[in-house]
C-alpha cells in the first residue's frame, strides 16, 4: 500500500526502523520533482521534494541498509545502454559473493533482493518422455 510522507524528519525515522528494506531516489525530467521511496513491511512510503540538494542530503543521511537505487526519468528501469540512466546501489549484511542480475548486482546470501532478479533462474517444467 502506498503512503505519502510530507515531513522529512518522519521519513528519516521510518528509514531507521528495522522493517525498512530499501530506498529509491526517482528524478522526474518533466516536473523536476524528486521522489524518495522507502519500502516498509506494510507500506511504500513516498517523500516528494522539489530541491535536488535536499534530496541528496537526505540520501546521504539514510542508513546503509536502507539505500536502494537511484533512477532518472519517469519510465521503468532498463538495462545499461538504454535511454534511461540508472545508478544501482547494493548492500551486504553478512558478506557473500555477488551475482549478475537484470538490474544490477545483489548479495548472494544475507542481503535483500530489492527488486533485483537473477539471470537464468526460471522455473522450467521437466520434459516428459
TrEMBL record:
According to its UniProt entry, the protein's GO biological process terms are: protein-RNA complex assembly; translation
Pfam families for this protein: Ribosomal_L38e
Query: Which residue ranges are recorded for the region named Disordered?
Result: 102-129
Q: What InterPro entries does the entry give?
A: Ribosomal_eL38, Ribosomal_eL38_sf
**Single GO MF annotation:** structural constituent of ribosome
Keywords from UniProt, A to Z, are: Ribonucleoprotein, Ribosomal protein
Q: Which domain of life is it from?
A: Eukaryota
A GO cellular-component term linked to this record: cytosolic large ribosomal subunit
- Family designation: Belongs to the eukaryotic ribosomal protein eL38 family.
The name this protein goes by in its record? 60S ribosomal protein L38
Q: Which organism is it from?
A: Cladophialophora carrionii
Q: Taxonomy-wise, where does this protein's organism fall, top ranks first?
A: Eukaryota, Fungi, Dikarya, Ascomycota, Pezizomycotina
Amino acid at each position: 500500500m502506498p503512503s505519502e510522507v510530507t515531513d522529512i524528519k518522519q521519513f528519516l525515522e521510518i528509514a531507521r526502523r528495522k522493517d525498512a528494506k530499501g530506498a529509491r531516489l526517482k528524478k522526474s525530467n518533466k516536473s523536476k520533482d524528486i521522489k524518495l521511496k522507502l519500502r516498509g513491511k506494510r507500506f511504500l512510503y513516498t517523500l516528494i521534494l522539489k530541491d535536488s540538494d535536499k534530496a541528496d542530503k537526505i540520501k546521504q543521511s539514510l542508513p546503509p541498509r536502507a539505500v536502494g537505487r537511484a533512477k532518472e526519468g519517469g519510465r521503468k528501469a532498463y538495462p545499461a545502454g538504454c535511454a534511461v540512466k540508472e545508478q544501482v546501489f547494493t548492500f551486504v549484511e553478512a558478506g557473500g559473493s555477488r551475482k549478475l542480475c537484470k538490474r544490477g548486482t545483489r548479495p548472494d546470501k544475507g542481503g535483500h533482493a530489492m527488486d533485483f532478479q537473477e539471470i537464468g533462474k526460471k522455473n522450467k517444467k521437466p520434459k516428459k518422455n
